[in-house]
Amino acid sequence: MVKRISLLIIVCLFIGSVSTACYDAVEVDDEVYALVLGLDKGITNKIRVTIQYPTYKNSGGGSGGGQDKKAGGGGMEGSNEAAGTNIHTIEAPSILEALDMYGMAVSRRVSLMHMKNLILSEDLVKEGIQPFLAPLARFRQARRVVNIAVVKGPAQDYIQNNTSNIGESLSKAMELMSVQADNTSFFPRVTFYNFYTALLSTYEQGFTAYSGINDFKQLPEGEQKTESPLNLDNGYEPGRIPRSGVAKREFAGTAVFKGDKMVGTLNSEETRYFLMITGKFKRGIIDIQDEELPEYVIPMDFRLSRKPVIKGYFKKGRPVVSVSLELEADIGSIQSRIDYEDRNKIEKLNDDAEKYIQERVTQVIGKVQNQYKSDIFGFGQQFAGYFSNIGEWEKFNWNSHFQEAGVNVKANVNIRRTGLMWKSSRVTDK
Amino acid sequence: MAKKRGIPGLFSLLTYKKPKEEESFYIPETEEEKRQARKIRGVEHKVRGIIKPTPVSMIKKVKTKEQSKGKNKETAREDQSGEKYQVVNKDDGNILAEEISRDIDENMELVKKAFNAEKNKDIIIREFTVGGRLRAFISYIDGMADRITINDFIIKPLMIKKEFQEEDCSLDRILREVLETNQATKISETGEMIYEILVGNTCLFVEGCDYCVSSETKGYERRAVSTPQTEGVVRGSQEAFTENMRTNVTLVRRIVKNKDLSTEFLKIGARNQNQCAVMYIDGLINPAIVEEIKRRIKGLKTDFIAGSGMLEQFIEENTWSIVPTILSTERPDRTASHLIEGKAAIIADGTPFALIVPVSIATMLHTPEDTTLRWQYGTLLRIIRIFALFIATFIPGLYVALTNFHREMIPTDLLIAIAKARENVPFPTIIEVLLMEVSFELIREAGIRIPGIIGNTIGIIGALILGQAAVQANLVSPVLIIIVAITGLGNFAVPDFSVAFAARISRLAFIILGAFLGFYGISLGIVVGAVMLACTKSFGVPMLTYFAPKVSNSNDLVIRRPIWMQEFRPENVNPLDVTRQSKVSRKWVEEAPAPAEDSDEEEQEGKRESKTEGEETGGKEIKGREKKGSGKSGEGIEDEEDEEDDDDQE
Known about the structure:
Keywords (chain B): Membrane, Transmembrane, Transmembrane helix
Strand order of the largest sheet of chain A: 4-5-3-2-7-8-9-10-11
Shape of chain A: globular
Helix content of chain A: 25-40%
Family (chain B): Belongs to the GerABKA family.
Radius of gyration of chain B: 32 Å
Number of strands of chain A: 16
Oligomer: heterodimer
Protein name (chain B): ABC-type spermidine/putrescine transport system, permease component II
Region (Disordered) (chain B): 61-83, 587-650
Largest interface: A-B, 32 and 28 residues
GO cellular component, one term (chain B): membrane
Distance between the termini of chain A: 101 Å
Structural class of chain A: alpha/beta
């Protein structure tokens, strides 16, 4: 009996493997791997999908950035080459159909397995992105660790300028670009998973990185004055950073969502304080004005020493949030060369920094509460516990109460290291 | 099983059938447990996963029954081969007298006939007279015997000796007084006499005696002891076995200077009458193992066994297993260490290898270097080797599976690189892999067969043509060259030649499984392989012991613990004495350091001693094994050992 059963199992396995084996097998080079998926509003159809995938040419990459030839409108736009990659744009009723429609022009199957970035155009997200996210959440190939960003202007243009300027590998460039979020905290690193869960959540709202194209005309021209003015608290928006260089695309700030619609943005500076509250602030150098000699600044390297402690409670029916930030800072430099490292003065510096941070964090919360009315901080989580069941919580509708919440911010800064100097001394003869 | 033909026959190989005869062993230690278990349940039970042992004597009975059952099958074969031997033997008996006669002419005729002296010029018969009056002759095979010994110590004394008195047989006296050879025995049977001459001894026949005297005169050309060819080590002995069995036995005996080290000689091969030696340490090895080895070797009925390689195939348990079940080594020190672990060594004349039985899979991955190096280094080497075995078996299969089925698992940059490399390659990955594997195997095989003088050519062919040119010609992608090269390296790092072969064969299976079913197929393959390995036994000892039938750790299996922690022999071979060394093998750690001149020393020691005692009573209690509180630093180490043991037992 046992023998017969095992015989049967073997026969089944054999038939199963023979008849289904290799069914899913695809050679590596029989597919192209889209690294970016860009979504724009369509003109003749629902959506315009742009993909960028690396070519398999040996000389792929090369220097200089791609020669962008923009093809005219229409159902399908011509493929462009940008630094060893091909870019295709297509208009289709849905993303998934677009992927199949590429098959009419691209000689290999388009795969989203190795997608790095999902780029959404601002126009699209302001109208709501619910219909476009659903297929990506369900589709097997699309990974949920894809970084998601909203781009100022058309995603198509953005992708045309999405080139790797340093190495040949575009995927590496894109991966490391999102890692830059951790190094500077000027923009958040949001994966599709984070974003999607935030959209479904009842106690927080979604946000993404905000990016755009810089035309290199932002760098002011003209005579240099004898005295350059000190200009602190500069928040930048993508496309507005005063710089020139090779990479036209840039990330700066946060796109704030309410529901599935984008309602506003935070600039790069505000993003830092926003990230401090959410605990995702890794590190960032912030210039603090020297109180004693206001024409000088003290750049300090801040980092969160502990996860921020956020507590929510109801006070006379009004939700109150208390945010307590624990920060550490290293002194980058003291331009005025005042001896702030001194035990008495360092306390003063601590206090200054605390005041500085506290002020700006409060400002950011205020801005989001008043202008956007969207709880991207996730404060709602602290209040959900006050409700005995989910029904009550949903009836309470946190999102409508967020704006009336009182927020108390307390920042504690400890300066830990003073860099390579432990005592500043004045430059003589000055 | 063999009766079924066609596809059902194939399936019957795969399906599990309860073996008709259980090959099991008498294990003295488990007898008591077994009896008790039978009393309790009245059923067979498993002792620590080992199938219920049955005494060897019972097996013999079963065997004979089996034979009578299967006689119908066997008689048919014996008609052709088995009978033949008998005919030959009968012929011998018919032509040659079974006993040596008193008549010297008759004896000379006997020798001449036996060795076909008219045609066969190897046999030398030298006639002379002893004491000037008794006729005598010696007989030996030219080349096999040492001429100087014969001239100086047999013929010379015999011919010089003049005063011989008449006796019934003077050979007794010759043996006593005249022959100057170290070994000399009386032989009266023809068969034995022939064998003595064949192995290189000299037989002396004297008129009037119905026996001859065989003197030890073996002296043939032999290779000197040299360094190991396949099992080289950096630190450790640099001796290897030679083709001569006697030398090999001596090499082992020189390392194991133990009076209990026994060497039994058994004849193998009916026509070439080879010899093999079974070495073991009496009183340490489980007698069942020796019994079984001898039973198997004695039960061989074949005409030619050239050496250990052929013998291994004749006595191994599972012919169909990919993994070898007998360890073959060319190192006397390795043989010795296995003997001391309670295993047996079989050394066959003709090949410079000893066969070690029984072994487990872990033993196959050991080298003598592990033991000669400090334990950290030895452990590192072992881990590297396990990794090498993994690479040699799985890497090409995994590569095929990854690139064909699981592309999402490859890092993007690597994937693009692979795609770029593959862009101009016209074959699917599986063909690429097989192509490279085949060429690599070709290089390997050709490298062994190529005459030494033109040996350099193989490097050029291998490196240039197959490496560079194949890539440039777009036949294979460069990534694949790396894969195959790594696989090759891994294969060479596997210490046992046979295990490396097993890895090579299973590698092919995994490539095909990976190509058909991806990771799913590879995991299926691993499961099937593990099951097959778990079913394999080496002389009754499961190959996966320690892992599958869980036995206590000898601290020298995969992770090599410090040498003083290795208190037990591997339990899988069930040695009669399982203890290798006492709990505290380094007595010096218990003792006070050599007294220094300082007078303060004693006081301090006294203080420390009282302190440790205090801790001891307050803290953990040490099992009353050793004298308590006798040492200071020693206590700490004992504690450690206790913990170690507990770990092991878990």
